[in-house]
Known about the structure:
heterodimer; A: mainly alpha; B: mainly alpha; two-stranded antiparallel ribbon; globular
Amino acid sequence: xxxxxxxxxxxxxxxxxxxLGFFAWQAGDGLARSDTSPAGFVGPAFMAxxxxxxxxxxxxxxxxGVSWHAKKAGVFDIMNDEWSRHVRMKAAEAAFWATxxxxxxxxxxxxxxxxxxxxxxxxxxxxxxxxxxxxxxYDSRHxxxxxx
Amino acid sequence: xxxxxxGNHMKALRAEARLTQAELAARxxxxxxxxxxxxxxxxxxxxxxxxxxxRALGRGTDEVFFVED
Lengths: 148, 69
């Protein structure tokens, strides 16, 4: 049981890293390639994008590694129990609202000359990152009472 | 009919059975956090999970869970 909790915490940590990496990758790439970005932004944005991609790929591999470890140790079903599914549904709902509000704001912004492609990249990053961050946040709660 | 809320006597029954949350969780096959959230009324379990919890405590479901007005 302790192993399940340890792996759960590890999965959560790598979910946060995935969120940060994916968002940096997409937003950085969008900024670097957009015609509306200032020239000074291009270099740092490409760098942020590259680092983000690296962080995302590594954390995704480790995330699946944690699941594989859980499967081998026989705690995968325990880690994916009813509460865990409930948490993911709540995270999906939170991500839906973050994305919906983001789309409304972005589509409004395109009317004022902001690059639509850049916004699409940022929104894609936001949608994925908000789900992963919401999952980590909801899942980190109610950890008290371990020895009650 | 009002919606009501699922209440429970899990904490008292668990103490009576001399089980920690972690021990009950192991018997039921869920994480301790699931037991914690059900016990504290944060999460409403499915009928299946409620039955498993009651069985692990050696009680009937209606002895463990009740509808709060």
